Amino acid sequence: MPAASVIVVASIAFLSAQTSCFLNFFLLYSIFFKKKSPIKPDWSLIYFRFGADSVYTLFIALNMLYFLLLQISSVFNFKNFIFYLLWPSLTLGTIRATVVFLITLDRVIAAYIPVFYHNYRSRIPIIIVFTTIICYIVFEQYVLFGFCGYVLDVPLSCDNLKCAISQCYYDYWLWYEQIMYVLIGILTISLCFRLFVWNYCNGVSTSHVVTRATRIALLESVMICTFDAFPSFLLAHIPSVNFQNVGPISAASKNTGFAIEAIIICRLLIFKKESVQPMWSTSRISPSS
């Protein structure tokens, strides 16, 4: 029988993933069908992230449900089925991390060079961004099946990511995840410095410069650093904290962060009635809302 902590942690991951999935679908439905929030063309990446999150957390919820079923009985164990659940999750996780990085980069450029952003941001077709993301996803499949030479043959006893894919691709996936954490962290620090330190030194009220798009970018970055990077640090540096002893703690932490983030964004975009001040005072050009 698995330890009680394993069941509890997996259940938290399952419930939080379900919550995040529902809330992100609710966000898209409220914005595009109920018109609860104005649709803004320059928010394309943010809307895309809502969609990616809804599908991503759906697959994570299915992963956690299958994991819980395996803890109950081996009768639910089907050859290679865990790979078919994990593979889309890995791809969607890469898409999410890349989109969060691009959203944060977008906000940094808007904050530091607003005139340039205002003049040239709309000239970049969003299809180019999506095509670049798709190309990287194709490259990842090459890394898995080509460079790493992965052959689909998952042991029946396997119930987690590390044994479902090759060590080569697992190392690459960890490397990519850590690089994205570092880049997003650097951009977030830069954005916070520009919005809070720089503006404070120049006597500009912070409440008048932080738009909803910027708040969402900051929220995403803080959630990644808190709920994604921290559990990864624990797993890497504390041997007693591992999958066998405590269960999918990384998935539980990440999805708890996703759920909290979705709740805050729902309040910000759907339920908050107050008007939001433009990012720059009326004497400056407003790059984006």
TrEMBL record:
InterPro entries: 7TM_GPCR_serpentine_rcpt_Srbc. Coiled coil: none annotated. The chain crosses the membrane at residues 6-33, 45-69, 81-105, 126-152, 179-197, 218-239, 251-270. The keyword Transmembrane applies. The keyword Transmembrane helix applies. It comes from the Eukaryota. Keywords: Membrane, Transmembrane, Transmembrane helix. This is G-protein coupled receptors family 1 profile domain-containing protein. It comes from Caenorhabditis latens.
